[in-house]
Amino acid sequence: MFQAKTLFYAAAFATATLLSSTAFAQVTFLRGNDGDPETLDVQKGSTVTEAHLMRDLYDGLMIHNAKGEVVYGVAASHIESAGGTVFTFKLRPNAKWSNGDDFKASDYVFAFRRIINPDTGAKYANILFPIKNAEKVNKKQDGAKLEDIGVKAIDDKTLEITLERPTPYFLELLTHQTGYPVHEASVKKHGADYTKPENWVSNGAYSLKEWTPNSHIRLDKSPSFHDAANVQIERIMYFPTPDYAAASRRFMAGELHFTTDIPADQTKFLKEKLGDQVKIAPYLGTYYLAFNMAKKPFDDVRVRQALSMTIDREFIAEQIWGGTMLPGYSFVPPGIGNYGKPAAPDWAEKSPIDREDTAKKLLTAAGFGPGKPLKVEIRYNTTDNNRRTVVAIADQWKQVGVETTFINTDAKTHFAFLRERGEFDAARAGWIGDYSDPQNFLFLFQKDNTGFNYARFDNAEFDGLMKQAESETDLKKRADIMFKAEQIIAREQPYASVLFYSTKNLVSNKLQGFSSNLRGAYATRFYRLNP
Amino acid sequence: MLTYILRRLLSTIPTLLVVITISFFLIRVAPGGPFDLEQPLNEAVLANLRKLYKLDEPLWRQYLLYLQGLVRGDFGPSFSSQDLTVAELFAKGLPVSIRLGALALTLAVFVGGALGVIAALRQNQPADYVVVTAATAGITVPTFVTAPLFQVTFGLWLAWLPVGGWNDGAVRNTVLPVLVLALPQMAVVARMIRAAMIEMLRANHIRTLRAQGLSNATIIRHALRGAALPVVSYLGPAAAALLTGSVVVETIFGLPGIGRYFVEGALNRDYTLVMGTVVVIACFVLVFNLIVDVLYAALDPRVRYA
């Protein structure tokens, strides 16, 4: 009797819910995000999660358009000095803040001083180190003062930025979230609380209205934005969806129009189910293994080459990652700006069988063989895909007689271990480009880059080329020099590039104007939402 | 009784202090820090940040500073949610977790309890088998399986309820998460009540009641009072766990509770958030254990506190 009653109530309740469920207002863009932002202070942020939000909230001097190309944002034009060290920007005459204040060049002077000030604690201050004296001020060197930073307001609508040295990727650099302005009066009045919705002032297409941690962030269109007439979507709801599988279910139920990732093991299913709403496109990132060159036998180039060439990248990209990653041979990802085709090792074109044979010979020459197998311990940070990847690599290495063991730790432990130069044989890591320039990948291997150069790669010729590239203003010549530098990496294999990252999104058919791009720059202002 | 409660409450202070001290140093022993990222920070920037968050101070000083703050009710800033303090995070998230947990707990106690009683009264009959089988399934199937299963069934196929999201606490957004949270607890309660009831129904005092010709309902009431004892002691810690949220349920359904803070805080080395979570959960456990002990006295005439 009791059970029958319960069933009855359950059914009645379910029916009532069914009847009361109304469709969510369709004018709102329901946008998934990787998680919650660590901060809404645009100058303290560092994650891709924040970058998505900031792109909607702010308008930088230079921005990415829907295709990921660098175009003018709050700047209307610019002039570059003959030596390439002085950039003069004319700001848009109708540029305003979301509270209606005029947007002035002095706002940028305040913003750049604030982000470079070491007391701000900006995680990405170093992106702006090409600006004159920025590095010195941030590192508190030579008594440099905030006023010494090379940013000057000539008048209300003219901004002059002086650089330490010619930086061919400077305009591209300004599209990074560190290049966004902040509203001086709000920061001064509210301090850290300027990020609260009630105090919010920004200069982008949207303005912050509501933030409930772990629930949602609501942005509404800003009527004072200079291009407001062309902004079609009135409201954006950002939902943190760190569980990609759950996000894809919400997408299928129509609760999300857009997700920032898809679960690799469900790619096939989702493609069948959702068709071209599944968008996979190249991204500016490399997934790699670092070999510890300070430890025998990994100081031997033959050992590194043998290990690297045995990795069947096509298999890993297709079978392990479900086609959501691309096989990687060069370290610099293809499609990057200010560069041509990246430098891959000469064995990249050979078949896996041929590479295995060569690897066996190299290992024999290095003193390893059936009686004396090479033993490698791979360290990696625990995720399902990393585990499956390194197990696949170990299996491939086994074909050439290499015995592999694993140590896996959580991400914090793993990367702290690498940064503190712990002892390892091979370690998994990844790098996502901050700006589209080969320098942003190759600088990882410079000898003096102790925080990033996990392999302890120390090559005078490479360092010399990088130094040479730094002072070369001719883009073509600079690209050639960096290509030569990358060839050294391809030959020496201190790092075995394994995969290139891709952007993986579920994008609703209702969303018009979307275009996958190398920078993963998806600003809502360029989209339209069909009901 | 009142002095007993007061004494117990006072004794929570040293217990809390021990918990805080052990946790504080344990999380610091874990390798890495809040600013170790896959994309490493520039050295100069890292030094600036460590100074800003006082991580460059000796550990014992950081510990004293933390205790000082705690006495003033200041849980410190969160490392992973820099715009909010730990206290603000809890102020926003705890009510959500408590609401979900309380609903799940109520469901577990009443539905689980009723099912347990029915099973015990119909021991070795079809109704009993159904309850025992369902309860075994409820205990063994983890929430990270039931949650997606419910999402697919009720959200996608039947489209009765939303797949996820909080929607400012709308009822239809809470149904699935509450059910998922309640199921395993319901199963445990049903099994415990069933076992205790079966034993109780054979006890001497129940046989006496039967011999006196009392109605079935009265007998069940008396038996239930005894059978509830083990469940009450189980529910103390279970309630503390339910009310402080579940990382699995909150992540899969996208709910703004505090359940995820324990795991995420630890993984992010968000020292202050981990400590805050430890303090909150410890308080819940201590309080619920006290409630259990008081309830014991109410349920069992043999238990007296002086």
The best one-word shape of chain B is globular
Order of helices and strands of chain B: HHHHHHHHHHHH
Q: Give helix % range of chain B.
A: over 70%
Strand content of chain A: 15-25%
Please give the largest β-sheet of chain A: 7 strands, mixed
Kindly state the percentage of residues in helix of chain A: 25-40%
Give the averaged pLDDT of chain A, no decimals. 91
Count up the helices of chain B.
Answer: 12
Topology, please?
The complex is a heterodimer of chains A (531) and B (306).
Chain A: H1 2-20, E1 28-33, H2 48-57, E2 62-64, E3 70-72, E4 75-80, E5 86-91, H3 105-116, H4 134-138, E6 151-155, E7 158-162, H5 170-173, H6 184-190, E8 206-212, E9 216-221, E10 235-240, H7 244-252, E11 258-259, H8 267-274, E12 278-291, H9 301-310, H10 313-320, E13 326-327, H11 352-365, E14 375-381, H12 384-398, E15 403-409, H13 411-419, E16 426-432, H14 439-442, H15 460-470, H16 475-492, E17 495-507, E18 511-512, E19 528-529
Parallel strand pairs in A: 1-10, 14-15, 14-16
Antiparallel strand pairs in A: 2-3, 4-5, 5-7, 6-7, 8-9, 9-10, 11-17, 12-16, 12-17, 13-17, 18-19
Chain B: H1 2-29, H2 43-52, H3 59-71, H4 86-121, H5 126-140, H6 143-157, H7 171-201, H8 204-211, H9 216-243, H10 247-253, H11 259-267, H12 271-299
Helix pairs in contact in B: 1-12, 4-5, 4-7, 4-9, 5-7, 6-7, 6-10, 7-9, 9-12, 10-11, 11-12
Description:
- The complex is a heterodimer of chains A (531) and B (306).
- Chain A is an alpha+beta fold and 531 residues long.
- Chain A has 16 helices and 19 strands.
- In chain A, the strands form five sheets. In chain A, strands 11, 12, 13, 14, 15, 16 and 17 form a seven-stranded mixed beta sheet that branches.
- In chain A, strand 14, helix 12 and strand 15 form a beta-alpha-beta unit.
- Chain A is globular, with a radius of gyration of 26 Å.
- The model of chain A is unreliable at 1-26 (pLDDT under 50).
- Chain B has 306 residues and is an all-alpha fold.
- Helix content of chain B is 75%, strand content 0%.
- Chain B is built from twelve helices and no strands.
- In chain B, helix 4 packs antiparallel against helix 5, helix 4 packs antiparallel against helix 9 and helix 5 packs across helix 7 (171-201).
- The longest helix of chain B is centred in the middle third of the chain and has 36 residues, at 86-121.
- The N and C termini of chain B lie close together (6 Å).
- At the A-B interface, helix 1, helix 7, helix 13 and strand 16 of A face helix 2, helix 4, helix 6, helix 7 and helix 10 of B.
